[in-house]
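FW: tagging you since you asked about this chain on Friday. Here's the raw sequence from the shared folder, copied in full. Didn't touch anything.
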Amino acid sequence: MTEYDHEPIRGLPGDLPAGEEILWQGSPDWRTFARSALYTRYVAGYFAILALVGIASGSMFGAVTSVIAGVIVHALLALFAVLVGRTTVYTITNRRVVLRIGIALNKCINLPLGQIASANLRPQPAGHGDIALTLLGKHRLGYAVLWPHVRPMQLAKPQPMLRALPDAARAADILARACAAIAPVEIAANAANLQPAKAKPVQGRNQSAPAMANAFQGAAA
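HL: got it, structure written out here
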C-alpha cells in the first residue's frame, strides 16, 4: 500500500464533479527533469573542473576527492529526479489544472482555467518541454511551496510550471483549447449576473484554439 492508494482518481484529491472530465495527464521525465531543473550537467562540469585543477596542481588526492564527491552529488540529484517523476502527476481537465506534487508530503494544487492568464512553452530535446503558467491577480502560492514545479527566479510572482513533459506540445495544445473553451462560459456567467467582466483581456483567453496553441509557443526561461 502506498501513500497515493487513497486517491479515488490518480493524481486528484477527490472524485470529479459533474460535468468535469480529464483531458490529459502526465508526469515529468526524470532524465529531462534532472538536466533542466536540477542542472546536473553544470554540477558534473563543476566537479570535473575541480578534479582538473587538482591534477594540474599535482594533488591527486584532491582530484580523486572531487571525482568521488561529484559522483555522490550527481547520484543524489538523479535519485531526487526519479522520485519526483514517480510521485508527480499533472492533470488538465476542462475546468482546471491540478498539480499533485511532493515526495515526503504530497499535496494537490488546483488552478482554475479561468485564473490562467497565459502559458509559455519552453521546448526541450526529444519533444520534451516545460509549461509555465501565469496566473491572474494575486495568489498565495509561494515559491518554496511550488518548488521545483515553478518557473526559475520568479520569486515575487511565482509561476507554477509543468516540468519535463514527454509530450509537451500536445499538453500545451490541450491546455490552449481548454482555456479557449472556458472563456465563453465566463462571459455567459457574467451576462447572467448582469456584471461586467472585471479582468482585462489577456493573451490567449479569448482567442480560437489554434491561436491559443500558437500563443503557448513562447519561451519560459
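FW: Residues 190-221 have pLDDT under 50 and may be disordered.
HL: agreed, and Strands lie at 22-26, 89-93, 96-101, 107-112, 116-123, 129-135, 161-165.
FW: great, closing this out.
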